[in-house]
Amino acid sequence: MASLSGLRERTERRLIIGLISDTHGLVRASVHDALAGVELILHAGDVGGDDVLDELAMIAPIIAVRGNCDDPQDARLKLREVRDVNGVRIHVSHGHELGVPTPARLAERYDAHVIVYGHTHRQRMDRIEGKMIVNPGAAGPRRFDLQPSVARLTVVEGQPVVELIELT
User: Fold this and answer.
1) Cβ contacts of residue 10 below 8 Å, gap of 6+?
2) Domains of the chain: which residue ranges?
3) Quick one: pLDDT at residue 106?
4) Given 3.30.70.120, 3.60.21.10, 2.70.70.10, 3.40.50.970, which CATH number is that of 5-166?
5) Long-range residue pairs from 78-84, CB within 8 A, at least 24 positions apart, any chain
6) pLDDT value of position 157
7) Number of C-alpha atoms within 13 angstroms, CB side, residue 133?
């Protein structure tokens, strides 16, 4: 997967990270447009295979965690990821480890400025006790009558800003 060390050296003040989840084996063409220009992609699980990771790696380096539908033996997928980026601690997990993940349960469980999760397929961004809880939604096959989506996380001088993006 990717290392952030080179990214930190290049971008001391501003870093744009693509957030994606629940691709379930599908990378829509609109993902390339939505995540154009990001310097890193964080995938919050239910990837659906190496082809997805390989295609996303054409956009930017990728770090992915394992979802409940992913192969538990897939060495490219971590259980969770925690990174400090320009003074912002980011935690990424699928969320299924909490049963039904809610922003409140995630904020209680994980110590990070930004908590990224998937599993519910519902795009949302909440602030709880100074933490930003982000679900970029499901980018893969349309399910539950929800619009496919991703997000962009911009870290500027230690401050996270999230943009939620619906896919076509």
Assistant:
1) 39
2) 5-166
3) 98
4) 3.60.21.10
5) 78/1, 81/42, 82/112, 83/4
6) 86
7) 21
Nearest to 1 by CA among 66, 70, 90, 61: 61
Q: What is the pTM of this model?
A: 0.92
- Average pLDDT across each block of 10 residues of the chain; the chain has 168 residues. List them in order: 49 85 97 98 97 98 98 95 95 96 97 98 96 97 91 94 96
> What pLDDT score was predicted for residue 12?
57
Distance of CA 142 to the CA centre of its chain: 18
Backbone dihedral angles phi then psi of residue 160, each to the nearest 5 degrees: -85, 140
Q: Which residue has the tokens 């890193």?
A: 40
How far is Cα 68 from Cα 75, in angstroms, rounded to an integer?
15
Q: Which of 81, 70, 97 is nearest to 40 (CA)?
A: 81
